[in-house]
User: Which sequence fits this backbone?
């Protein structure tokens, strides 16, 4: 078990035996819950048990944990006799989901599915309208051009009017 | 012929699955109910956990510690997601009510049945812990799991489990002692 290093902490030096006791108490209290739930190895549990028999401070800490555990136990007793079971609706839902995985996926992701279907319908309608020449997108707006003859000759020169 | 064999296999798997549901629905519901404090949400979480089990479990569908560990882990993750959703909804509800100038009573996360005042205090102290601490306390104290089982469920080391539980118990003892809830 480690010993507290007071040399650099600026604290007043404690006698060696006192230091060891404080340190041991800290260490014991760190594993108190492990000890109480029988999760400590035999050797360590023996050490903690021995220390607990002698140390009142650690006994008080153990009593506090015990009290908390008892209260939690009481809180748990309230539903000790309640039979927790899935409702019939949930049971049927599980069956339906394992028998129809695709439908279940659609059901779970209904927002994505609805959006995809909506986009597909809009695209289909647009394509249909264009194909049937009922609607076609407007041409891009272009600048007007003037073609004027030079010296009476016909020319291909294009004059773009200044804005 | 192959189709028939496949169908038979599927039927056997469904029967095994039903046995697994019957075995674990109680413990899982109790666990998620303690985490969420809401029966409907707990039922949803357990339902989703079992559906996931049927889809993803490749080994033999028989009750075992490995299967139980997997179920607790998935149920916990689903419960955490649900908890976040519920909190978000709660906050939205509060914000909406504030904007309208209504007075709203904060909905209780726990619908604890009639228990003594002291036990109720303990239940409230438990709710004050972080989700991870709550998970460990519930698994250890209510579900009676060992550190090793908890470590398998949570993915934490055994040392870490003990460390978190130690501080969780300390916090709870302090909260109960000071009665500042």
Assistant:
């Amino acid at each position: 078990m480690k010993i507290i290093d007071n040399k650099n902490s600026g604290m007043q030096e404690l006698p060696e035996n006192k230091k060891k006791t404080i340190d041991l108490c800290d260490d014991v209290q760190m594993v108190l819950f492990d000890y109480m739930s029988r999760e400590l190895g035999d050797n360590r549990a023996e050490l903690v048990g021995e220390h607990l028999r002698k140390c009142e401070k650690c006994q008080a800490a153990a009593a506090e944990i015990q009290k908390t555990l008892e209260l939690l136990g009481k809180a748990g007793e309230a539903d000790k006799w309640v039979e927790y079971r899935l409702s019939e609706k949930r049971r049927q839902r599980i069956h339906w989901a394992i028998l129809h995985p695709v439908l279940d996926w659609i059901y779970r992701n209904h927002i994505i599915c609805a959006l995809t279907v909506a986009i597909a319908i809009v695209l289909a309608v647009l394509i249909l309208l264009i194909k049937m020449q009922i609607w076609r997108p407007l041409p891009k707006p272009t600048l007007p051009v003037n073609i004027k003859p030079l010296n009476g000759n016909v020319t291909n020169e294009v004059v773009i009017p200044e804005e | 012929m192959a189709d028939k064999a496949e169908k038979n296999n599927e039927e056997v798997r469904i029967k095994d699955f039903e046995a697994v549901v019957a075995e674990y629905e109680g413990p899982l519901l109790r666990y998620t109910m303690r985490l969420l404090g809401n029966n409907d949400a707990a039922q949803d979480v357990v339902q989703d956990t079992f559906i996931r089990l049927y889809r993803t479990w490749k080994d033999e569908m028989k009750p075992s510690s490995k299967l139980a560990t997997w179920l607790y882990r998935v149920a916990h993750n689903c419960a955490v997601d649900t908890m976040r959703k519920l909190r978000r909804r709660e906050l939205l509800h509060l914000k909406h009510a504030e904007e309208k100038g209504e007075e709203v009573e904060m909905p209780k996360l726990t619908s604890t049945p009639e228990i003594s005042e002291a036990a109720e205090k303990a239940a409230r102290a438990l709710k004050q812990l972080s989700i991870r601490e709550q998970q460990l306390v519930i698994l250890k104290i209510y579900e009676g799991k060992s550190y090793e089982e908890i470590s398998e469920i949570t993915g934490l080391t055994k040392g870490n489990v003990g460390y978190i539980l130690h501080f969780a118990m300390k916090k709870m003892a302090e909260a109960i002692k000071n009665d500042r809830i």
Summary: Chain B touches chain A through 44 residues (CB under 8 Å). The first helix of chain B runs from residue 2 to 36.
